[in-house]
Specification:
By secondary structure, the chain is of the alpha+beta class. Helix content is about 35%, strand content about 25%. It has three helices and seven strands. It has helices at about 25-30, 40-75, 95-105; strands at about 1-5, 20, 35-40, 75-80, 115, 125-135, 135-145. The chain is elongated.
Amino acid sequence: MEIILKQDITNLGHKDDIVKVKDGYANNYLIPQGMASLATPSAKKMHTENMRQRAHKEEKLRADAQAFADKISSKSFKIATKVSTTGKIFGSVNTIMLAEALGKAGYEIDRKNIKIREEDVKEVGVYHANVKVYKDIKVDIEFEVIAEE
């Protein structure tokens, strides 16, 4: 069954994509939850016209996102946390803490769009994370975990 997505859905597609899914998934979950609509021929025509009108807006958003990605990739961020005498962190650094550090630096990014490359950040040091800036624009950033004073 073909449907038109009304919002981004992980592992399925982005908003306004036309995708094929199994009938039960569409009828029992996506359409009742308001995440998608049925892709009838008339809905496809309306969708095509809307996408044509949005194309130039999309290019501007993409250019802005790329400029933001270039700007943020050259920066390094510091996260201060409580540390034991051996250099181990009490707890671990997670995406929430990294999103807060980015926010303090003036870059508002949702924590759901951040993925820390290393499995556990439990020691003082330099680490890397992937940040999803726009649909297909991702940037690698570097952050340092330091002892809190």
